[in-house]
Amino acid sequence: MTVTRVCSVNDVAPDSALRVLIGRQPVAIVRIGDDFYAIGDTCSHANVSLSEGEVDPGERDLECWKHGSRFSLETGEPDCLPATKPVPVYTVKVDGDDVYLEIA
User: Fold this and answer.
1) What whole-number distance in Å separates Cα of residue 42 and Cα of residue 18?
2) 69 within 8 A of 83, measured Cβ to Cβ
3) Rounded mean pLDDT, 77-100
4) Predicted TM-score of the model (pTM)
5) Is the Cβ–Cβ distance between 12 and 31 less than 8 Å?
């Protein structure tokens, strides 16, 4: 398992998402309050960036801006159509002001 620093805590505004690249893999880093999540940044229904969508702090999901599918930040599962396939989720660690991902 590899642990990679992806950004600073301050790079991600509360209740928003930031797109980062891990190698060639786009990942959305999402911040809700002091909690951080990481999911694949490409919608499984259409090839668009999820980090450009709306974060729902109450539901802890991220909405695809193109067609409205919502993905759980905890499981990557879509909550509604048109997406039917999950996106990957990653383990996030925060150490001081740095955000790290665990990549298998």
Assistant:
1) 13
2) yes
3) 96
4) 0.94
5) yes
Two tokens at 63? 């909405």
Burial label for 10, CB within 10 Å (0-12, 13-18, 19+), is exposed
As a whole number of angstroms, the distance between CA 46 and CA 63 comes to: 13
> What is the bridge-based pairing of β-strands 35-40 and 89-95?
antiparallel
pLDDT 10s digits, 12-58: 999 999 999 998 999 999 999 999 999 999 999 998 999 999 999 99
Contact 53, 63 (CB under 8 A): yes
Dmax (CA) for the chain in angstroms is 39
Beta bridge partners of 101: 4, 92
Reduced to 3 states (helix: H, G, I; strand: E, B; else coil), residue 81 is coil
DSSP letters spanning 35-65: EEEEEESB-SSSS-BGGGS-EETTTTEEE-T
Dihedral over Cα of 89, 35, 13, 15: its sign: positive
Enter the tokens of residue 72.
């759980």
Classify 23 as helix, strand or coil.
Answer: coil
